[in-house]
Amino acid sequence: HYWTPTIRSDIYGSYSALQTNDAILINGVARDFDPKELLVAANLVWSPVSGLDLGVEVLYSRTEYGVRVPDAKAFAVNGRTIKSDDAWTGRLRIQRDF
């Protein structure tokens, strides 16, 4: 959305789910993996002069699994598993078009 001729913003999101109809064995028990992901993001961009964009963006994502999975950050240390994971991402943008 253009708030003024030089300031604009966007908000967007997505949701996805995968159902495989296949199970994985965990401790001898068949369980569905079936991941789901939610993503929500927003940005604000200022264009002080033609061809120059200065902006910030924030993104949140959540992934859920049908079973517990190894935690990539801590599994090697303590064997930790997780059922869901959240992440925040931020970005500064400076773009010049000629």
From TrEMBL:
<protein>
    <recommendedName>
        <fullName>Porin</fullName>
    </recommendedName>
</protein>
